[in-house]
Structures are given as C-alpha cells and as structure tokens.
Write a structure and sequence with these properties.
alpha+beta, 5 helices, globular
Length: 208
C-alpha cells in the first residue's frame, strides 16, 4: 500500500507560483538600457554626447584675469595719452577748425555746457556746406575733455552716431596737436584740425 503524506497547501501554492513565474517573466531585453543615438546628435556640436562640464570650467563668455589686466593696461595707456594731449593743448593759443556745419553744430551741442568752452568770434562759411573757425586753446581743452567723456561712457545704450562723431573729433584733434612744437617759427602755420575726408585723386595714367 502506498504511503500517503499530507502536503502543505502553502508549499503547493509556492511551487505553482515558481513554475508560473518562470514562464511569465519578460525577456532580458526589456531591461536593457538603450545606447545613445550619436548619429542624431547636433552635427555642429563639438561636445561628446552626455558630456559633463566641470563646475567652474571657463566658457567662451568668461573673462579671465589676464583679460582684465590687459583691459586695465589699455585704459592706463589711453589715460596717459589723454593727459599728455591736454598738456599740449593748454599751450596752444588757437587752432583752426575746418568741418561741415553739422559737425560744428554737434561740437556746440556737446561742448557748450563745459565751463571752459567759449564761442569763437567768427565762423566763416565755405563751399560744400563747410565752415572755418578759430577755437582758443581753452575751448580746445573743453573739446578734448567732452569728447573723451563720451568715449569713456560708451555702453549698450550709447547713440552710435554720437560715439562716432566724438571719436572722429577726438582723434583728429590729437593728430593735429601732436605736430605742435614749443618753439614756433614766425612763418609757421596755425595748428589746424580738419574733418573733411575725401577720396584721393587717381594716379595719372591709371584706369578710370
């Protein structure tokens, strides 16, 4: 006679669950992590996919210490040139100014508020809308200081026309006073500032 043993129902349920779990488990591929699609990455990108930028790493917009040092050096150099120009202009009696009447109007608008600017006694009209006048050395100092302030205050909100005119006047004034000498010969011409650029004459024999 066969021996009959009592089976634990809980054990049978456990065995049945183990058998079914083996057949219903999803395949291993379902848990695989997909590889990054490198080919679909931005063709213009120079970074590797999923690249991590270290904290504090410099970018193209960062300003380094050497950049700041170079900027300060340039400012100091420009400041020194500006002061030397003021000392030179202070020893000049008067300068002859030739420019368009609109440029002259710009100078009056910008420098008339300066305490050392004085209106010249006479302004002569020339052809092509130009004017000629003689400005005192004191007024010349006001022109240099005023236009330099416009250049130093240049920012995103600065009117570009104002900046360009101030730059032209300032640079041409410096160019003119650089030729001033301490010992002025009797037959020498007066220091002249000209803002009247024109195309150069074609070389004789060149094609038109």
């Amino acid at each position: 006679m066969a021996e009959v043993t009592d089976a634990d129902p809980a054990d049978e349920g456990s065995d049945r669950h183990d058998d079914q779990s083996g057949t219903n488990d999803p395949p291993a591929e379902a848990f695989a992590v997909p590889e990054p699609d490198v080919a679909s990455a931005d063709a213009n990108s120079t970074e590797a996919p999923n690249a991590v930028v270290p904290e504090g790493a410099p970018t193209g917009h960062d300003v380094t210490a050497s950049d700041i040092e170079l900027r300060e050096s340039r400012r100091a150099e420009e400041r020194g040139k500006h002061l030397r120009g003021l000392l030179t202009a202070a020893a000049i009696s008067s300068v002859r100014l030739i420019c368009h009447k609109d440029t002259w109007a710009f100078l009056l608008e910008q420098t008339s508020r300066h305490q050392h600017f004085r209106l010249p006694d006479r302004v002569t009209d020339l052809e092509d809308g130009r004017i000629e006048t003689f400005v005192s050395g004191r007024s010349l100092l006001a022109v240099l200081v005023t236009t330099r302030e416009i250049l130093d205050d240049h920012g995103p909100d600065t009117d570009m026309v104002t900046w360009a005119l101030a730059s032209a006047v300032y640079s041409r004034t410096h160019l003119a006073i650089e030729n001033a000498t301490l010992n002025r010969p009797d037959d020498s011409e007066v220091t002249t500032i000209v803002l009247d650029d024109r195309p150069g004459r074609p070389v004789q024999g060149s094609a038109a």
